[in-house]
Amino acid sequence: MEKLIYLDHAATTYVKPEVFEAMKPYFVEEYGNASSIYSIGRNNRKAVEEARATIARCIGASEPGEIYFTGSGTEADNWAIKGAVYAARKKGGKHIITSAIEHPAVLETCKYLKKEGYDVTFVPVNSEGLVDPADVEKAIRPDTALVSIMYANNEIGTIQPIKAIGEITWKHGVLFHCDAVQAAGSIPIDVKDLGVDLLSISSHKFYGPKGVGVLYIRKGVRLENLIHGGHQERGKRAGTENVAGIVGMAKALELAVANMDQYSKKIRRLRDKAREQILNRIPYVRVNGSMEHRLPGNLNVSFEFIEGESLLLLLDMKGIKASSGSACTSGSLDPSHVLLAIGLPHEIAHGSLRLSFGEANTEEEVDYLVNCLAEIVERLRSMSPLYEDFLKANK
Amino acid sequence: MYSEKVMDHFMNPRNVGEIEDADGVGQVGNPKCGDIMKMYLKIEDGVIVDAKFKTFGCGAAVATSSMATELIKGKTIKEAEQITNKVVMDALDGLPPAKVHCSVLAEEAIAAALQDYRARHGLDTDGEYAGCSGCCGGCGFKHDHGVEEDGE
């Protein structure tokens, strides 16, 4: 069988067997509509409500009624942002504050709203990839309707000072949304402690199924609806419930929270080993983003003089699956907006590699990865005119 | 997303390297955009007897450089000038739309190296070479990219 070393857990994870087992009954046997009155429907209603309670408990919500199921993390982000500013419109709110390094689900939503006439402030990050809460406070205006800052960045894994920002938004009476899609399952989330009003998570980032997300809406916060139709999700998000997905998501989050200490220790050890070996063995490498405030499983490095897509293709031939912030992999002419925001020159951003470790990875895989990387980087540099120029200049 | 031929030329690129006493050298592209091609030509009696390249770029950039050097080796200068990006692309069984610009870069690398050859040998040059030195779309010159450009 072809070797498969999966180092792209930030993109998505497999579904854990226990999670899949928990979902199984809801496809063939328990197929009733959760809104129906007969027994197979009622059983599904019960399953959905139990899942809601589990998720509420896992993120520290006050009550299950604050949990709303969506079709994805992206939908949760869209709903939080559009729903909040549309609701604020009547009271004169027309300004949004977000950061320069958000996921496209937030950035593109904000850009869309900008076209609709809203003002958006993109607060910068420092060279470590961290937002300064003081910048958020300075950006607040009387007409600010929402602040939206991610918990952890999807490319460089940096963890933002959400609690400090939450104190600021609370003081100014501004709604605060947090995209916690990358954080959920890797670091603890307590919505009350963080002081957020809205928080998005997505099931497939923590060994749950794809196609299901959650928006936490603090009790008392009013959002305009985006999905109109039936009365599901207490009249706020229409559409027949994805019962199997919801059950799977709750099971996956429950497992993640129960095993978090062990899990984060394990992936942190693998990540640190990979980082150390890469830095020891390969010259002209830089690690992107703070190592102190960072998700345990994330590593993002740039190899000078080479381009990321070539690197990914050659890694793939060795069975290693990873991702890059190069323009060629994003489908645009510019490399990753996150790497540019932390001040990387374009040519170095093009040569970036994101490795995100997970539960099934091993120490041996890290050794193999670093061996392959050393060989591939050398090979690509040997055919790079940039490296040739660099060597000639440093003769 | 890539054809087998593209993958073959990416995995086993032909003619990688430098020619120490090259008769013409051309470099196109820009590190800012993630693609640079440098082409070296050895020319005897108007015939390209050897071609080598170095490329910083994606899989398609490497494959188009490799194929371009293969296509021009043994050709006269006049014949080499007929090697457009479409010829390179067709020889690779096509490229994904987002990668067509890599084949344009290959065409321009050949043109830049030939221009350098003419300049060095005091041959007629048809004016200033206005080849690609920036990002795709950065030169304002309408290339036959073979696809509709995104209005982004």
Automatic annotation (TrEMBL), chain A:
Listed cofactors: pyridoxal 5'-phosphate
One GO molecular function term of this record is: metal ion binding
* Reaction(s) catalysed (UniProt annotation): (sulfur carrier)-H + L-cysteine = (sulfur carrier)-SH + L-alanine
Task: Spell out the Pfam families in the cross-references.
Answer: Aminotran_5
Aminotransferase class V domain boundaries:
5-369
GO BP annotations, alphabetical order: [2Fe-2S] cluster assembly; amino acid metabolic process
Instruction: Tell me which residues bind [2Fe-2S] cluster.
Output: C328
Name the EC number(s): 2.8.1.7
Q: Where does pyridoxal 5'-phosphate bind?
A: G73, T74, N154, Q182, S202, S203, H204, T240
Q: Which residues form a coiled coil?
A: 253-280
Where along the chain is the active site annotated? C328 (cysteine persulfide intermediate)
By sequence similarity, the record places it as follows:
Belongs to the class-V pyridoxal-phosphate-dependent aminotransferase family. NifS/IscS subfamily.
What this protein is called in its record is: Cysteine desulfurase IscS
UniProtKB/TrEMBL annotation, chain B:
NIF system FeS cluster assembly NifU N-terminal domain: residues covered: 1-121
Q: Which GO terms describe its biological process?
A: iron-sulfur cluster assembly
GO-annotated molecular function: iron ion binding; iron-sulfur cluster binding
Q: Identify the domain of life.
A: Bacteria
What PANTHER family does the record point to?
Answer: IRON-SULFUR CLUSTER ASSEMBLY ENZYME NIFU HOMOLOG
* Protein name (database record): Nitrogen fixation protein NifU
Q: Which organism is it from?
A: Thermoclostridium caenicola
